[in-house]
Design brief:
The strands form four sheets. Strands 3, 5, 6, 8, 12, 13 and 15 form a seven-stranded antiparallel β-sheet that branches. Strands 4, 7, 9, 10, 11 and 14 form a six-stranded antiparallel β-sheet that branches. A six-stranded antiparallel β-sheet has the order 16-21-17-18-19-20, with helices on both faces. 15% of the residues lie in helices and 32% in strands. A hairpin with a 2-residue loop joins strand 9 and strand 10. The chain starts with a strand and ends in a 17-residue tail after the last strand. It is built from six helices and 21 strands.
């Protein structure tokens, strides 16, 4: 950042020339808070209507085809303007989960807005979002609830449904949301390298480009599959890729067929793509055990995850010449995996846009990547981990704990 100076010219009284340094420009506050209901006590703090909380999961009692769970009103401590929900759930047979949000500010409460109708598979239910819904305080942009005027608190509501007569119930074991109020900036000060300098995690490398033209009904591979490819790389790191029987439908002759499967299992039929953030974490949670969408303020915060052995999938965007060494010249929205940092603090990533698996590993300038990530997506990341890699206490953008 530049420091501005001003000079007071000498007067006729021969006052000495004085140089005054103006105070450094304040960095706009980045307000972020992640709230989660996971433990049995946290889930029981919500209100049930036709659902029950047993064994740490929200489910439907026998003989019930539909029911709801509503979270308590939750305040992040600031007037949030964006919210992204995420969840971990099971939807056996013909069942699904609807995720909704509403907000409150002063005496005004918004209507419920639908964020997703989700199912793990697509045989009975096509998972969708519902962009628009701009009827009062907020509106939905694919996976993000936007409230330009801000609300001071929010509620999440889950509706569980199953086909009449079906015995197996959908269930939810974790639901959460990252609320944020972020400045509109085009770049950010480069953060100081932190605890993960010299740490590079052994994350496998998969290229989205080798799938170009595959399965047009799920986006057609290539440039469209950066998100499921990145998610698959992290699942591979945890040895949590799907079983071969799950992706047998892909057929012979496809390299890295688990990527094709991930694209199908994350496809948003309303958005018509595989880049829906919580659809990717919901898929990952079913295999690794834990996953959610959150936002971070800097790469220094990301380093704390990498130092704990947890790679991050980061949402970025950049123009020509803005990300030196990238395999594509620009992108309005792209996903990469942050796998480590050099000794000097530059960022080691797995970039799925490389033409081959072998070319996926890249090193990007710290400041360039931070500018492509923080202003573009608000510092959005997928946090995916297994039981062997628990989240250390106090991680930024993570659940505060029971």
């Amino acid at each position: 950042m530049r420091r501005l100076t001003s000079a007071i010219l000498a007067t006729s009284l021969l006052v000495p020339l004085v140089t005054i340094s103006a105070p450094a420009q304040a960095v706009p506050a980045r307000r972020i808070a992640y709230g989660q209901w996971d433990s049995p006590a946290q889930l029981r703090s919500g209100t049930t209507a036709g659902t029950r909380v047993t064994a740490g999961r929200i489910s439907l009692p026998a003989g019930t085809a539909t029911g709801r769970w509503t979270s308590p009103w939750t305040s992040p401590g600031f007037a949030l303007t964006e919210l992204v929900a995420s969840w971990s759930a099971r939807t056996p047979g013909d069942s699904a989960v609807r995720v909704e949000v509403r907000g409150r500010t002063g005496s005004t409460t918004s209507s419920w807005d639908t964020l997703a109708v989700w199912a793990a598979g697509d045989r009975h239910v096509r998972r969708t979002t519902s962009s628009g819904q701009a009827d009062d305080l907020g509106s939905v942009a694919v996976d993000t609830w936007r409230v330009p005027g801000g609300v001071t608190s929010y509620q999440l509501r889950l509706t569980l449904t199953r086909a009449a007569g079906q015995a197996s119930s959908p269930s939810v074991d974790t639901v959460g949301a990252v609320a944020s109020r972020l400045p509109d900036v085009s770049d950010v000060p480069t953060s100081r390298p932190g605890p993960a300098r010299g740490v590079v995690l052994d994350v496998p490398r998969y290229s989205q480009m080798i799938h170009s033209g595959e399965f047009p009904q799920y986006g057609g591979g290539g440039e469209a599959w950066c998100s499921p490819t990145s998610t698959s790389m992290v699942l591979g790191y945890y040895d949590a890729l799907p079983r071969p029987a799950d992706y047998r439908w892909v057929g012979a002759g496809h390299r890295d067929p688990w990527v094709d499967h991930a694209a199908r299992m994350t496809y948003d039929y309303d958005y018509d793509g595989t880049g829906n953030w919580p659809f990717n974490t919901a898929y990952a949670a079913s295999l690794a055990g834990h996953a959610f969408v959150t936002r971070l303020r800097s790469l220094r915060e990301a380093e704390r995850y990498v130092a704990a052995g947890i790679p991050l999938v980061a949402s970025i965007a950049f123009g020509p010449g803005e990300l030196t060494g990238a395999p594509i010249s620009s992108s309005n929205g792209h996903l990469v995996v942050i796998v480590g940092f050099t000794a000097s603090g530059d960022v080691v990533v797995n970039d799925p846009a490389a033409a081959t698996d072998a070319g996926v590993r890249r090193t990007y300038d710290r400041g360039q990547l931070e500018d492509a990530w923080i202003p573009a997506s608000g510092g959005t990341v997928y946090v995916i981990h297994d039981d062997a890699h628990p989240l250390p206490a106090g991680l930024p953008g993570a659940p505060a704990g029971p």
